[in-house]
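Forwarding these from the shared drive since the link keeps breaking.
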Amino acid sequence: MRAGAPSQEEIRRQNLGALLRFVHERGQISRAELTSELGLNRSTIGALTADLTEAGLVTEEAPRETGRAGRPSLVVRAMSESIYAYAVSVEVDQIRVARIGLGGVLLDQRSIPRPRGSIAGTIDPITTFIKQMAGEGRCVGAGIAVCGMVRREDGMVHLSPYLGGAVDEPIADSLRERLPELLPQVAVANVADLCALAEHTRGVAAGCDNFIYMYGDVGVGAGIVAGGHRVTGHGGYGGEVGHMVVNPVGRPCGCGSKGCWETEIGEHTLLKLAQSTDIGAQAVLAVVDRASRGDHIAQAAVRQVGDWLGFGVANLVNIFNPELVIFGGTLRDVYLASAAQVRSKLNSIALAATREHVRLRTPALGSDGALIGAAELAFQQLLNDPLA
């Protein structure tokens, strides 16, 4: 065997992972379709599906009546009911916890308003929800989406100014210590990054290898995918586009700088411009609704924020040359209300070559993107090596 060449066992494991990932992402599929899609012969597909079936990861069954002559190809599907992950989304206003089966099937979900104070105060309700949702079968672990900067190496929440000012919060370790028998692994990532992962896996960005997912609430961040890979930077802190300085004489930002992009397009700015005394996602929706019904103050607020939204997006388009920009969180509603301003700024600022084919979209997965992305994070180890 040539030095450095993979062994037969390594090739087999890679093929097992490729097949399981395909079924996980695409849903139930026949052996014949797997043979065509994966470029493997029928006997190899048969052997791989048999191994995954024996491991309890997939099941094979005869398809429903096809009306065609001949023996129908067996259909392979993920064992969603018995292989699952817990998904957690720690947001500015609420905590959501779900149990999601292999294949992206939502099995159970709970939510609660987020307790005020440090992110450490979220551990108790998360623990309670996971215990309540514990099911039969096998848990592969948990994924946690957090509105903050997350260190890739160990999942430490390095900084989360909008979650009680959390600094170096070991949320993954804390949850593992509480539930060692239920959680074999816990992974943590930024909410925008995980929303991008979710949309890439089973949402509007499926099949798109270069896109940006803009996530907004009080702060603003981005999940960036380039060449099919998530761009998270050296330590995992990449995507903090909300702290790109766009207005040097602008408002002070919570990060200590001045004129950051999120001071021009964030939730607080929109609500202040619209003279709203409320806070949160529902308050943003109320402003958008006022604008749609002719309220001049709300319309002016939406237009101004839309202009700045387009300004920043144009710069990101010039830098990353994406095929797609997705607006999620509260930016979804702001974009829908100011699409004309955003596109106008994009057309006037971005280079013709970079803006020519870029599409502006809203998420296909809606508010569930963070949970689905957190589950995808938890499933990665299993999908990479199903028999590990």
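-- next protein --
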Amino acid sequence: MDIILGLLAIASVIGLAMLMSNNRSNIPFKGIGIMLLLQGLITWFMFNTEIGRIIIEWIAAVFEKLIEFGRNGVEFVVGGIAMTDPDDPNVFFFDVLLIIIFFATILSVLTYLKVLPFIIKYVGGALSKITGLPKIESFNAVNSMFFGQSEALIAIKSQFHRITENRLYIVSASAMGSVSASIIGAYMTMIPPEYVLVAIPLNMFSALIVGSIIAPPDVDGEDDEVDVKNVSESKSIFEAMANGAMDGGKIALIVATMLIAFLAALELVNFIVGAAIPVEGASLEAGLGYLLLPLTFLMGISPGEMLEAGSLMGLKVVTNEFVAMGQFMDLMDEGVFSDKTIGIVSVFLTSFANFGSIGIVAGTVAGIDSEKGKTVSRFGMKLLVGATLASILSATIAGLFL
């Protein structure tokens, strides 16, 4: 039964994307079919084979060690305030967000050493050959697995003169539907690491699938070259470390600032909802939970958990993933969710698809090309819907193998 519901959910996502499509006759169904197959194979391999489980455990152990290294740096600076008990974080900014600084530093060094650009270029090229999708879109999708929304788009700024409106939608959807490698460590302190790791490749494919349906690419060969030269402005490895640390600090501060604003606004909205609807438990989260009940049912979440799961999913879209993950942690500690629901919700939450990301993507594109920035602002809501459908697709596929 769960498999049937999951397939219905996948069909629903594709159907909704087709309803939004601006050129149904040009949808690359072959490439979409190949990517769905690859998603299934990757998820099956990682969840249902001994080798896959060993690989996930090894990668998770590497990240846990890196998190430990990052905590040592944070503890030296704020030792008396943070790290009272690393297994029970008590100061979110210190125990979770400042870990981003170390991960951003590693990312910057790997970029300076040309390790990441090499991997991204050739994996993106292979993806383009396998699926038949354009090189720029494929490169950007792979790039979005490592870098944040702004960084991924800036990496292809030299190709912006080649990008049509449909192609702009696809690269923007990839940026919004992804996560940044610099922030993965923070996620892993909040939700099970194995689901974060699975979500990364699933989101890459899901964003390409949904984006290619909604805005099918139409590209001439000469308009599809990728240039990854001069990807780092650092002149030495030490400058790369310094630049990465500064970027990580900015990200941590931005996330903290957004959390303060969103959590305060959420309390305000819930106060208003509670005053307007004098019913016990009335809140924005509860309303979102009821709204998303059909979706959570199709995704394979058991009936007793659908309302809470839908609330978290809706909360993530209207605020951000950190707000939702914070509440998710509390519910997991209380034993509210089964292992399968934890996996589905975790994968859904691991992306940047939320209202705030519309402004981030539009602002980044506007900084590269003001006219294209206006275009992104115009289809901003369509972009959010597409990125959210991609998150649903990723979570549903993960649920099929749990």
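The chain has 20 helices and no strands. The chain has a mean pLDDT of 86.

- D.
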